[in-house]
Amino acid sequence: MMLGTVVLQPQGHICLRGVSKSYDGDTYIVRDLDLDIEKGEFLTLLGPSGSGKTTTLMMLAGFEFPTSGSIDFDGEAMQDRPPEKRDIGMVFQSYALFPHMSVAENVGYSLRVRGVAKAELDRRVRDALAMVQLEQFANRKPSALSGGQQQRVALARALVFEPRLVLMDEPLGALDKKLREDLQLEIRHIADKLDLTVVYVTHDQSEALTMSDRIAIFNDGKIQQIGNARDIYAAPANRFVASFVGDNNCLCATVEAIDGDIVRARLTSGDIVSAIRTDHAREGAAATIAIRPESIRFAGGDLPGVVKGHVADVVYYGDQIRIHVELSGGARIVTKSAPGTLHASTEIGAPVFLTWDALQARALDARQAKQ
Ligand code: ADP
Ligand code: MG
Question: Taking Cα atoms as reference points, which of 211, 214, 109 lies closest to residue 158?
Fold first, then answer.
């Protein structure tokens, strides 16, 4: 909004422009990153190990500095400021609690450093501990708590001074599955309740899909796609995202024809399939057809447009059955069905005929993004 010559920035806005980072002056770990984070947003950086997530978080925190590019908070340049001048709360995988201090002293530490008066400090520590349901443990030492409880203390400690940005790097990585899932929900609820701006790093896609407002998919120091969980799952932008988020069959093909939004492509088996066109598809060019296992149906017979193959493997998971179908030439397609809905032979070697709705498949770039 313009008022005379004054531009009003939305409060709490974080803006990265052209941010690159090289530790050795030679290889770039983060490459020309542009990213906007809104106040109150829960943004997750998701990607394989080594893709530059932690380096990006460290530059937001001020423990690392960009080789080039800018980082603004509310229009104020941050990229050269030390961490203590950025007003940021952090939670890491290792809890990094002070072992000689009680839980309450740990949580109150940042307030004490800031010179907050005792009565106010005690009140805020009590509130923060209540938020993570640890009031009754205020006087214990961290070593007398479980891993999940210690991580809740770390969370309370990061939030007690109401930072304008909370950074979390694989905070639940050391916990077992059930506890991790409980804490995912708890962190998300607290973030909503306090209207926190959170940048959360994980390599666990289900964690990213369940917690985030938006997910930035990292690979090779670059954001491959950014969007909400549904968009990224339903409409992966490239082959890397298609194979990294959820399960996808990524089939090599050649584009035969383009008809509006639909591509017809020939698989290496010779079968012709249909898929949604993306801007990579060119007539006569190679493409990847991405189709999710749950989107594939079994056809009754060798009808026009089906993909022909035979059963190569049957894997039973309890809540689903996966049939691996081998096509002529050796390519494989994995299907996924709920038990009781499976209308196909599960005998190894039996012929099967596969089909899908063209709108469930995507014709993507042919090359595998560098991993
Ligand atoms: P992620 O968090 O996605 O696993 P990181 O940002 O930690 O990725 O690391 C990306 C790459 O940068 C890795 O190859 C790692 O070895 C390298 N790296 C990270 N920190 C440093 C550092 N302080 N000095 C040199 N190289 C580093
Ligand atoms: Mg990391």
Answer: 109
Q: Whose CA is nearest to atom 1 of ligand 1?
A: 50
Q: What pTM did the predictor assign? A: 0.90
Pairwise CA distance, residues 41 & 39, whole Å: 6
DSSP 245: S
Instruction: Give the β-pairing of 351-355 and 42-46.
Output: unpaired
CATH code given to domain 248-365: 2.40.50.140
| Burial zone of 1 (CB within 10 Å; 0-12 exposed, 13-18 middle, 19+ buried) | exposed
The tens digit of pLDDT for each residue in 237-276 reads 999 999 999 999 999 999 999 999 999 999 999 999 999 9
Question: Using one digit for the tens of pLDDT, what is the confidence trace for 147-188?
Answer: 889 999 999 999 898 898 999 999 998 888 988 998 899 899
Residue 221 CB less than 6 A away from ligand 1: no
Helix (H) or strand (E) holding 198: strand 198-202
The answer to whether the Cα torsion of 185, 183, 210, 57 is positive or negative is: positive
The strand pair at 272-277 and 262-267 is best described as: antiparallel
Paired residues of 325 in beta bridges: 311, 333
CATH of domain 14-234: 3.40.50.300
Q: What is the DSSP string of 110-176?
A: HHHHTT--HHHHHHHHHHHHHHTT-GGGTTS-GGGS-HHHHHHHHHHHHHTT--SEEEEESTTTTS-
274 lines ligand 1 (CB under 6 A): no
The backbone torsions φ and ψ at residue 217, rounded to the nearest 5 degrees and listed phi first, read -90, 115
CB-based neighbours (< 5 A) of ligand 2, an ion: 54
Nearest to 207 by CA among 40, 293, 296, 93: 93
Measured in degrees and rounded to the nearest 5, phi and psi for residue 214 equal -135, 155
Q: Is residue 243 lining ligand 1, measured as CB closer than 6 Å?
A: no
- Domain extent listing, the chain: 14-234, 248-365
Q: Is the pLDDT of residue 103 over 70?
A: yes
Q: What is the dihedral of CA 297, 298, 302, 305, to 10 degrees?
A: 10
